[in-house]
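INFO  loader      accepted 1 record
INFO  loader      residues=335
INFO  predictor   begin
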Amino acid sequence: MLDIQRLIAEKRLLMVGGKGGVGKTTVAAALALASADAGRRVLLISTDPAHSLADVFDRPIGNTPTMLWPNLMALELDPDTEVDAYLERVFAQMRRYVGPDQLQELQRQLRLSSQSPGAQEAALLERISRLIDDSEKDYDLLIFDTAPTGHTLRLLSLPEIMAAWTDGLLKHNKRSEKLGKALAHLTPGRSIDNPMSNPEEHALEGMDQRSRELTETLLARQRLFQRTRRVLNDADCTAFLFVLTPERLPILETERAVNSLRSASVPVAGAIINRLLPETDDSDFWTHRRERQQRQLDGITQRLGDIPLLRLPLFEDDIQGLDQLQVFSRQLIQS
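INFO  predictor   done
INFO  writer      dumping tokens
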């Protein structure tokens, strides 16, 4: 049985995911509300480009932390804003290492990079990593309302993508060949989890001051992603929670995602089966619907194996606003 109260009391990082349209934003919001009511300082973060946190709370939120309830702040990460901010930081760092005649070309390359595959995810990862790294003094618990499963799985694999992104930026610098050799360990396929393999001691040898500063900047970013990876893999502080409905496609997608996360050593706490049909109507229509639902529930038990499950009923109306969220939150805690 999935122990929600224990999760929101003990974890530092909760990630809520699943197929689109299964109610994961509502569950994430209800978890955040319950934890805040229990006295923990909570930051609820949406990483879904199609945000719906503001719709669930029926209040504007946006790209900066917004107070929604005592102990509860919320934030909707905007991918375009994150890409622009990320490239501004990169440009500020890189412009010191190129001549005035190269600045226009550097800006052009960065603009092109903003449209490259994975650019938004890379910028999101950096913001997420900094939130995890910097949030401990201000918050007891971070809850991520993630994008639909495929996007989230890509996001969780991003330390390797960011290595390639960093490597690509290095190639725009006239010292790229020299630095590229020194930072070859940043390329995909190399281990970033083993600090013993970090060539930091030798990466700066033989470099002039400007090259050394650039290398140190890149190494600092790489260490940030190393710390993020360690937090994501730490079962004592992190848990991934799936939400699904008793339907074939969400079940299949959840099964694949559980297997992917387990292969990446990301701890999976359990799954919430949302919108179960009531037992009170005996008409033929609802009887058939419940029989179909029971077959899907049997399939969930077979496919998801030993992960803890929790069941939530279908509510009469959409969950919107703090009053309805509190009702839903109590149901979630008591189920």
